[in-house]
Amino acid sequence: MEECLKQLAEKLGVSTRFSDAGMVRREYEVGDDTIKFFAKMLGYNAENEEKIKESLKQYEEARWKKTLDDIYVVESDKIEFDAIIQSSDISEYMELEIKNQNSDDHIPVSYQIVNGNAEKEIDGKTYVRMIVRIETPLTYGYYDLNLKLKNKHYKSCLAVSPKGCYESPSLNKKIWGFAVQLYSVKSKHNWGVGDFTDLSSLVKIAAKSGASIIGLNPLNVLMHNFPEEASPYNSISRLFLNPIYIDVEAVPEFYAEDMKEVQKEVEELRNSELIQYSRVYNLKIKYLERCYKRFKESKNKERKTAYARFCKEQGEELDKLAIFQSVYDEQSKTVWGGWRAWPEEYRNPSSKVLKDYAKEHKDKIDFFKYLQFEADCQFNTAQNNVSDLGMGIGFYRDLAVGVGQDSAEFWGNQELFLSEAGAGAPPDAFFPEGQQWGLGAFNPRKLKEQKYLPFVKILRANMKNAGALRIDHVMSLMRLYIIPFNGMSGTYLYYNFKDMINIVALESHLNKCTIVGEAIGNVPEGFLDTLKERNIHPLSVLWSERYDSGWGDFVSPSGYPQSAFVSVGTHDMPPLRMWWFGYDIELSYSLGLIETEAAKSEAYHKRELDRWKLLFALDSNGVWPEDNKRRSNYIYGEGYPEGIEEAVHRFVSRTPSSVFLAQFEDILHVEKRQNLPGTDRDKHPNWRRKLPVNMEDMEKDIAYVRNIAAIRKER
User: Fold this and answer.
1) What is the pLDDT of residues 182-221, one digit of tens each?
2) Max CA-CA distance within the chain?
3) 3-state DSSP call for residue 43?
4) Stretch 611-635: mean pLDDT, rounded?
5) Residues 471-490: tens digit of each pLDDT
6) In whole angstroms, what is the distance from residue 291 CA to residue 301 CA?
7) C-alpha distances in angstroms, 456 versus 55, 393, 452?
8) SS3 (DSSP) at 302
9) Which DSSP helix (H) or strand (E) runs through 466?
């Protein structure tokens, strides 16, 4: 690799070399073509050596040509920023104004100007970098900066952050709760998919059982026209909720006679083995359209005022989502290929044609806003139950690492995203072939130019009604593995980690939301230490808490981190009963994920050893139920160890970790997995499995009763 190209890559945050997290760690050299590709996406020409040198010069001079940067993210114990001033203006009077964005109050501040001892000559002019050090303490928040110099005004933004993230007082003791995929909840009232009323019911059951937290899958809005695209991690906007979770019967405009019409179909959907997304969603939309018509005709001023207030608060982002959904609904009837295949005037969200379209189709667009309004109302009701019952943390929400390429979020702010590549992951211990998520990823330069506001909005939207937030693939605050769509190899793209993590800390305090970081996979050296310093809780999973890279014994409960949120598994892992019998191995073999009989045999052999190790760990810690001790070695063919779920739950609950999250799949002895990474729905019914017990019968279910008792013995 040419030295100039390497220098440019380093400045742009494009990795020229990286290692994976496989069982046998491998190093990768990134090819010149890949580096040039990413340089171009970031706005720099690297076509040849001459262009690379020009790009290096362009990069070096970019900051010097701006008096103030777009935003300064600082920690409250050291509030300072740099200003680039022509040397001839240094003696001129300088004035600084600061305004709190939240209150609009102008803050009188004292400050000191320090010569930064750095200067650069550009086009015959000498520029000096000055450091402006604010000595007046500022509360956490966002401020407008206005610097006056020689009758000119220079504006920027100042974000003042705490050193660490918010910590809920509820975490002063060990607590526990449930991890649930809301769509999977089964009840006697829902329409074939879990809804917000089910969530309210779950809150009551959880609080009665002594739980303090409910972990939820991402609740973000998915594709209106293609309900079968059901992955909660591939939304069209991380700012809004999925209308499929609306309980139609709880909508004020839904009438009893409507239920008589729909009862038979609802019962079919409720009793189906798997979730039938298209039928459920389209049925709900049919009756929600009817409800919306009644809403428009109603004289309920209070509800209409609430709707208008919601639309005003959500502003431009809600407008964009609703317009996107309306246009998509129309275009998808004749155009295949998503928004990129639309007529050009529709691809630009600011075009005059679209503004005219919005006026002409106001009623349809307002319907999509009505869906978000009702979803928000029902989610708020569930949160009110959390508050009324004093659950402590309450909802623990999940923020997906990216957004769908064919999404309102991408369409509505196209320059913010990398247009010709998507987020993924290199090979690691869990996914030896790597992962191509194809998700839209932020352009780090454009993100800062937009003062990180899109990231802030996403954090706030997902911290709403949440006492804790899980950031999926939290390493993306530092770097994200990006794969070009043209077949080139991928590499890591680095973000401004200090800015990103400080904004997370700031928003966590402003929203009183504890932060959890999912850091399984290729974790940079020292990254976990930084998370700990910033008070970001780690995740610990029984299946990955093993010595010798997953081959050794299970770590004893005392070896788990005190600050961790712990669980037995995740939605991407087989539940305990499936794991024990090795059904996941057979499934992977049948789908070609395990390619040979020999590999399958080796996997079964390792699983037999792992079962022995798990039994040894449970025996050593004395966690078997007193009335259901282990009776044999349970080699293959000897059946299933009764009481093993209780023993495992006691084992993990015994850890000193802050939070234990029990999965309903383990509590209820489910032996099929929710999601099999690396497969589409044509191979595996991902995100479609229902829990085997109705919510109304949960507290009477013997497996539930015994497992909750086991957890409470340790918590």
Assistant:
1) 999 999 999 999 999 999 999 999 999 999 999 999 999 9
2) 87
3) coil
4) 91
5) 999 999 999 999 999 888 89
6) 16
7) 30, 22, 6
8) helix
9) none
